[in-house]
């Protein structure tokens, strides 16, 4: 197998590819954490660009070579012996954090507020823009073997930000109907409606596809 490489950034705004952890051996045996994954795609978030261009976001500063990326999906290539919810070959998306499981937010199910959160992207914890990653199996989410949106499929999009709007365009191109988009910001909903007339905001009524004219 090819060696592990990652996309690094430093405080001087340089970008380069270099060797990364875990080693190929650790990634393919499930050593270190609970499941190894070969990364098939990692989205570039605006925050990645911010780290590159500005060297920091809030309290997180790039002070030494750091691997970017946190929007990752791939294929499981190794599973630790204690894991029973995943198998080699599973297609997965990854939540890029590690929580303690013991603090109050974790215990009441609001783990995003974990007081001891390790986020696989914010320095000093390297991100996911690399070839192989080991990560706790708890935060791998299995994806359907295949899925496609087709003409007449109803779609609900939660969030009318940049990703939601891209999803909106893709679903419209595939012929989905109705397309319902939700957001707590009415300005975003108005903008979504302005760029695509077939969008239905929550609370609106809609006609079956054969009764409408695009």
From TrEMBL:
It comes from the Eukaryota. Signal peptide: none annotated. GO terms for molecular function: L-iditol 2-dehydrogenase (NAD+) activity; metal ion binding. The keyword Transmembrane helix does not apply. Its cofactor is Zn(2+). Belongs to the zinc-containing alcohol dehydrogenase family. This is Alcohol dehydrogenase-like N-terminal domain-containing protein. It comes from Penicillium steckii.
